[in-house]
Request: fold
Amino acid sequence: MRRPLALCLLTCLALQACSQSLPDRLGAPIEGYSHTSAAINYFMVNGNGGPNIGPYGGGGSQNCCVSLPRQWHPGLTVVVEWEKDPNTGDSVNWPKPRYSDAWRKAAREHQSKYTRHRAVVEVAPYEQLGLVNVHFLPCDQVKVAASPSYHGRPNHPYNYPMKMEVPAVCPAP
Reply:
């Protein structure tokens, strides 16, 4: 009787020694939302790229991946870098024909007005790691959530309206 019990115990210990624990960090897909009239030409979270986003748009287009801890902890931050096109509709007034020298000159002048930004952003608390949602708000403010929820769901921490106006005076950073 003792032999089967001992054999079972040894088998369980051997299997436990062979098993690997879950990793502390996992890769999570990235998507973004622009809540302003500016386009986000590109953005990165901890050096990993997210999709470009049109004015007042986003979601539905994901890039892979940013490494985050499986368990949220206080003080968890990410670095978000992005390039913004504040005048997305300007190209309708560029000279014709498309790709002519005059058109290329207008495009270069337009691109010279792009702005680049960088922010260290706290990640909203999550119980389970999921999709990384980056919200670009007026005044170059950014919010990041990393849960299975997404914009528009009742349990998403940042359900801002898609069309937000820039205030007359932006708050100090």
Summary: The first strand starts at residue 25 and ends at 34. The helical segments are 2-18, 101-111.
